[in-house]
């Protein structure tokens, strides 16, 4: 993409809506069944570590880190390691009718 090669990014003005956010603490060995969403999922790890597996990748995220899971991507989440994990998942939609990308 040309704008990356030129060393700058576009300014993106848009609106995000978050829903379903809740903090939860789980014990070692916890696993959430494979799922996908009709919106982005934002996963923030507050304490411990999480392993997320998709059809094409595997990622470990630790306390203070976050991941954005794309719309429709199947994923499975696990508590990683020998400690409990506290995480904050949110589903987010991008309100495109108010989006404005400036180059």
How is this structure best described in words?
This protein has 103 residues and is mainly β. Helix content is 4%, strand content 61%. The protein is built from one helix and nine strands. The protein has one helix at residues 2-5, and strands at 11-19, 24-26, 31-35, 40-47, 49-54, 58-62, 66-69, 75-79, 85-102. The strands form two sheets. Strands 1, 2, 4, 7 and 9 form a five-stranded antiparallel sheet that branches. A four-stranded antiparallel sheet has the order 3-8-5-6, with no helix packed on it. The longest helix is centred in the N-terminal third of the chain and has 4 residues, at 2-5.
Strand and helix order: HEEEEEEEEE
* Number of distinct helices: 1
Q: Stretches where pLDDT falls below 50 for ≥5 residues?
A: 96-103
Structural class designation: mainly beta
Distance between the termini: 12 Å
- Note the beta-strand portion: over 45%
Q: How many strands in all?
A: 9
**Approximate helicity band:** under 10%
What is the alpha-carbon Rg in Å? 16 Å
Shape: globular
Nearest-integer average pLDDT: 83
Largest sheet: 5 strands, antiparallel
Output the keywords.
103 residues, mainly beta, five-stranded antiparallel sheet, globular
Summarize the model shown.
Helix content is 4%, strand content 61%. It has 103 residues and is mainly β.
How are the elements arranged and paired?
Layout lengths: L1 H4 L5 E9 L4 E3 L4 E5 L4 E8 L1 E6 L3 E5 L3 E4 L5 E5 L5 E18 L1
Antiparallel strand pairs: 1-9, 2-9, 3-8, 4-7, 4-9, 5-6, 5-8
